[in-house]
Amino acid sequence: MTQQPPQIISSESPFAGDVFVKRHPALIERLVAVWPFAPGQRRALSELVEENVQGVIRPLPDSAADAGLWRDWGSGLYGQPWTSVPFLWAESFFYRRLLEATGYFEPGPWRGVDPFAPFKQAELAGEAVSAEITALDDVAALADDERGQALLLSSLWGNRADLGFQITAGRGIEASGLVADDSARLWELLRSEAGGTVALVADNAGSEMVADLVLIDHLLAHGLADQVVLHVKPSPYYVSDATLGDVADCLRALLHSKGKARAVGERLREAAALGRLRMRADAYFCAPFDFTAMPEGLRREFAPATVTILKGDLNYRRLAGDRWWEPTIPFAEVTDYFPGRVAALRTLKSDVIVGLETSTLAGLNAVPHWRTSGTHAVVQVRS
Ligand SMILES: O=P(O)(O)OC[C@H]1O[C@](O)(CO)[C@@H](O)[C@@H]1O
């Protein structure tokens, strides 16, 4: 494997530092405003904010079922400021601690209650999703290839809907475009290997998941995949990351609509019944590490796939290792460890980036915050 540059530590990146001192406090403020939390939950949440902003990382209480696991995973990191340890690890542990504070894993009324559900539901009921659903009738008039590309781009840009990101980035950010575009290679690959299994590692619920489901339907309906395995998070994570319950909500939104969208929902429901659309929620998707350390079970899932499509920024960070790579290092070189062929559909919302042409990078360097503002995107493929 190529020699790896250092991992991103939040204190070395103004963007990542702000996630702890601005984004997390704002998120917790919103949670406290919408839920009838008891004093103990409120106290745990405000302690978590204090810790993020000016304290040090405390481990999970011993009573937590996975306390031992996290003690090992975080060995050497506890007792340090949140911004002094790898960004990927710290952000992941923040969400585990948040669920601890709300009682998500504990016996009692809060067990299994997704604290982010009100935000996800509002987004699913909002304009972006209804516009997406209406647009399906227009997209149906396009030739197959054009329709496929339109659905791919919709799944890609749907990633900007990420709710955690919008807490501080705000709406109304303009998309500037693709800075690496291997989409033709992706279609070539899907056509030449038609009839196999495609794995799609999902990112966000709501409009992004609706777009993902429509893309999955396209692959199945056109025989580009005989089966699709949809990988989601086993528990609430990074605010809007999709769980199985979110997939069900999105499918229901399609089924309750009219026209083409409803037909998509019906075909997907049938595909699930026939075992052509399968769901996975591996525990590793909420682990604080990159994909180089993925467990054998996941490697076996991905290796035989025609291609594994990774959605979104966080999956990209885990694919590339959340490291200070030279942006022009080839995507294929950085991802050569990944089992099987891999494609990333990602809007740029954090520092890591690989696989850019030198000329593209030169142009981007004149654009403020191009790595983190969500205005640029990549479709990158290792085939
Ligand atoms: O939903 P996505 O595309 O994975 O984006 C989540 C991203 O949001 C952040 O939490 C902050 O932008 C990143 O750290 C993370 O990669």
TrEMBL record:
<dbReference type="GO" id="GO:0016791">
    <property type="term" value="F:phosphatase activity"/>
</dbReference>
<dbReference type="InterPro" id="IPR039763">
    <property type="entry name" value="ARMT1"/>
</dbReference>
<feature type="domain" description="Damage-control phosphatase ARMT1-like metal-binding">
    <location>
        <begin position="22"/>
        <end position="357"/>
    </location>
</feature>
<keyword id="KW-0479">Metal-binding</keyword>
<dbReference type="GO" id="GO:0006974">
    <property type="term" value="P:DNA damage response"/>
</dbReference>
<keyword id="KW-0464">Manganese</keyword>
<dbReference type="InterPro" id="IPR036075">
    <property type="entry name" value="ARMT-1-like_metal-bd_sf"/>
</dbReference>
<dbReference type="Pfam" id="PF01937">
    <property type="entry name" value="ARMT1-like_dom"/>
</dbReference>
<comment type="similarity">
    <text>Belongs to the damage-control phosphatase family. Sugar phosphate phosphatase III subfamily.</text>
</comment>
<keyword id="KW-0378">Hydrolase</keyword>
<dbReference type="InterPro" id="IPR002791">
    <property type="entry name" value="ARMT1-like_metal-bd"/>
</dbReference>
<protein>
    <recommendedName>
        <fullName>Damage-control phosphatase ARMT1-like metal-binding domain-containing protein</fullName>
    </recommendedName>
</protein>
<dbReference type="GO" id="GO:0046872">
    <property type="term" value="F:metal ion binding"/>
</dbReference>
